[in-house]
Amino acid sequence: MPKREDLKSILIIGSGPIVIGQACEFDYSGSQALRSLREDGIETILINSNPATIMTDPSMADHIYLKPLNTKSIIEILKEHPQIDAVLPTMGGQTALNLCIEADEKGIWKDFNVEIIGVDIDAINITEDREQFRELMLKIGIGMAPQATANSYLKGKEIAQEFGFPLVIRASYTLGGAGASFVYKEEDFDELLTRGLETSPIHEVMIDKALIGWKEYELELLRDNNDNVVIICTIENMDPMGIHTGDSITVAPAMTLSDKTFQKMRDMAIHMMRSIGEFAGGCNVQFAVSPDDQEEIIAIEINPRVSRSSALASKATGYPIAKVAAKLAIGYNLDELDNQITKSTSALFEPTLDYVIVKIPRWNFDKFEGSDRTLGLQMKAVGEVMAIGRSFQEALHKATQSLEIKRNGLGADGKGYKNYDQIIEKLTYASWDRVFVIYDAIQMGIPLSRIHEITKIDMWFLKQYEELHNLEKEISTYTIQSLTKDLILEAKQKGFADRQIAHMVGCYESEVYNKREELGIKRVYKLVDTCAAEFRAETPYFYSTFEEEIETPEGVVSVHNESVVTDRKKIVVLGSGPNRIGQGIEFDYCCVHGVLASAECGYETIMINCNPETVSTDFDTADKLYFEPVFWEHIYDIIRHEKPEGVIVQLGGQTALKLAEKLDRYGIKIIGTSYQSLDLAEDRGSFSTLLKENGIPYPEFDTAETADEALAVADRLNFPILVRPSYVLGGQGMKIVINKQELEEHVVDLLRKIPNNKLLLDHYLDGAIEAEADAICDGENVYIIGIMEHIEPCGIHSGDSNATLPPFNLGEFVMQQIKDHTKKIALELNTVGLINIQFAIKDDKVYIIEANPRASRTVPFIAKAYGEPYVNYATKVMLGEKKVTDFDFKPHLNGYAIKQPVFSFNKFPNVNKKLGPEMKSTGESILFIDDLKDDQFYDLYSRRKMYLSK
């Protein structure tokens, strides 16, 4: 059936601010859906309260409402747009679904004659209500773990008595495993049962018999109105049952399933999808498989919507699930749609992978002091990386290199654990670094059978680890001079970085690189084409690998590189890697705009990034996508292959900035602000000298590299003192100390975590007001795009502060100082592009806290509040295509916009929730108010000092 002609205008509900368990993969899905609907000439109306995402950019939908996600906002929008025919709620995670169901129960859709498309509410209710779902599965002959529902404390106790321990408690109608827990011992049951009942919006939990050690799999399906079903991707969790899929290392395609069991699982997934309702769209099914020869399959759950894994599956296969799901929702069938990658085959096909995908989650436990770092049923990761390789080993190595946790891959970097008891404990209680600890355990000589017994990780994966370790042992017996071509090639094919090989043979990374070059061992780039090269792909979406040379009958020796370099002028945009606290989706927004603006200036655009959740890694955002680690070796090879005019580093957060020094050293042009200026702003000593020479006030400060130096500095500065390391983002390691004992403890701790770092000690301006300004500079002219005043006092990280645009409480005298200082600093730093400056205001005097000549976290917020594409303008300035004076700036904002941080403390029940100079928020929303008499502003202002911690 072709597209429905009666659907002319569709409302899409977004997922709101980013929280753990619901991150930017839903912004990616929503952005895909919006583009998909607009292709068909449908008017799109979007509601989403998240200003940091590209999804709420004016270019994405016909009408965008940055409003709170509640039924009051829905009614306002439906009154404003009586033409809305339907609502698509499946792209915004649990938030959008819950809001859609609430509006349905209140009769709002009926009142405004709006149809719900892309989902069947009955199907949602069946899958969310664990009891109904269980009954249906048993009726259609699908196995389930013994389980029962409890909606009271007493009922829960009865079930536990019947099943015995260990048990699993899961809260109904929640996302990211909220309220879920393993209960090993009877004495822990009461507290965990109460927590589950309180977390569930309907105060209901499902209690399951725990399937400890079973293997876990996910299937991503799509179905159309003709009941055609395709299975897009099969994902295997390397971690067994008991760890939330969002916290598991996952692999595609499935590695350890027998063909017979795989076919059975496919049939079961299709049967389940067909039995829960008549709907067209995406679906995610999770299974557990017994780790014995029987391979018994048990259903865990089914989600009849685009899920967290859909983004991963889309990037893993090149099949854009959300884009196609949106088409199915408006009536198309799969056989009427094109494969988006080949453009010549049908969308009614199942992708074939001739490579391996590994996803590793990214955690931020250091932001939650005292948090329980073991992994379990409740998701704790804040982001993820994905890597593509020709083997599991290569993909695993590339994924570990993408994490940005100062590791160069698995082992071979001198950073592993050496303590037997510590290794056994980390294997027993799954920790965030277990992926590395397995390697350490093998290195220590702990037998694979023992590691398997403790972790229940399938022996196939452990043997892959063992092979890597054996290769490391062999290479370590050579020197760089004696190392053979075959061994280097094998190490590279298995994903070892040059740095790791250098560590094994005791030389410099550059020596390994030069030896590789001499021997002709070079990276080649392969296409992600959905069909294992059976048909020609039109979309340039690449990953790197190493190949054996092949000799043709004519005697030509070569390797096959599928990335053809054009003769167009090129720009590389470095992405921001995995989401984490302090560096989130707002940098992805900046990268996408950087790519689009470079394209408008006539450049061929090249994106390098490894985050599967984002729009920047969509296969049709840039002219060429390299899905690779933002890791020096990979980037240098791509740059040497493509020979771009230059690289944009100031849009990808600290990830891209950290590579500026290497790029500069290797003579690669940095587009916009030079490395020297970026470094000057980061080096607090040089920067303060610059301020001093220009008569700009800053808090008294000094630097220290040891605890003794810090104590000597404290005698001069007076407490309280703000301690912070150089070259960090999100206030990592920042703390306000009030005496010498606290100072010594914190400095010793910091230097242990970040060795050889220069620490900055500032006299903390107690009771000061904090403000910040963002500006665009072309080296001669400066335009301030926005000045924001923080509601909380100075000392709470800017990312955790409620901030108002424009300021609400700064007089003309103070505002003039902010403007003068911003312009002066931007010019003195020779800024070309964006700059963010933070101020502390005390007794009407404006002090400089710091300056960052790059895109900041607040730029998307200011762009949305004023309705101006500032990153587009800034990129054109960086490229030298435009001067600041060429733009006609027309910011428009009635009243005030407030940036409101959102926290995910509920994932860490025992953590100190006080705020300070280290950032803890995972996302933000935007709130528009007409004036300062607004109750919400008054409420924020009255609580502004409550959480300040020293």
Automatic annotation (TrEMBL):
This is Carbamoyl-phosphate synthase large subunit. PANTHER family: CARBAMOYL-PHOSPHATE SYNTHASE [AMMONIA], MITOCHONDRIAL (PTHR11405:SF53), CARBAMOYLTRANSFERASE FAMILY MEMBER (PTHR11405). InterPro entries: ATP-grasp, ATP_grasp_subdomain_1, CarbamoylP_synth_lsu_oligo_sf, CPAse_ATP-bd, CPSase_dom, CPSase_lsu, CPSase_lsu_oligo, CPSase_preATP-grasp. GO terms for molecular function: ATP binding; carbamoyl-phosphate synthase (ammonia) activity; carbamoyl-phosphate synthase (glutamine-hydrolyzing) activity; metal ion binding. Gene3D superfamilies: 3.40.50.20, ATP-grasp fold, A domain, ATP-grasp fold, B domain, Carbamoyl-phosphate synthetase, large subunit oligomerisation domain. It catalyses: hydrogencarbonate + NH4(+) + 2 ATP = carbamoyl phosphate + 2 ADP + phosphate + 2 H(+); hydrogencarbonate + L-glutamine + 2 ATP + H2O = carbamoyl phosphate + L-glutamate + 2 ADP + phosphate + 2 H(+). Pathway: Pyrimidine metabolism; UMP biosynthesis via de novo pathway; (S)-dihydroorotate from bicarbonate: step 1/3; Amino-acid biosynthesis; L-arginine biosynthesis; carbamoyl phosphate from bicarbonate: step 1/1. Large subunit of the glutamine-dependent carbamoyl phosphate synthetase (CPSase). CPSase catalyzes the formation of carbamoyl phosphate from the ammonia moiety of glutamine, carbonate, and phosphate donated by ATP, constituting the first step of 2 biosynthetic pathways, one leading to arginine and/or urea and the other to pyrimidine nucleotides. Keywords: Amino-acid biosynthesis, Arginine biosynthesis, ATP-binding, Ligase, Magnesium, Manganese, Metal-binding, Nucleotide-binding, Pyrimidine biosynthesis, Repeat. Pfam families: CPSase_L_D1, CPSase_L_D2, CPSase_L_D3. GO terms for cellular component: cytoplasm. Residues 134-330, 688-879 form the ATP-grasp domain. GO terms for biological process: glutamine metabolic process; L-arginine biosynthetic process; pyrimidine nucleotide biosynthetic process. Composed of two chains; the small (or glutamine) chain promotes the hydrolysis of glutamine to ammonia, which is used by the large (or ammonia) chain to synthesize carbamoyl phosphate. Tetramer of heterodimers (alpha,beta)4. The keyword ATP-binding applies. SMART domains: CPSase_L_D3, GARS_A. Belongs to the CarB family. Its cofactor is Mn(2+). The lineage of its organism: Bacteria, Pseudomonadati, Bacteroidota, Flavobacteriia, Flavobacteriales.
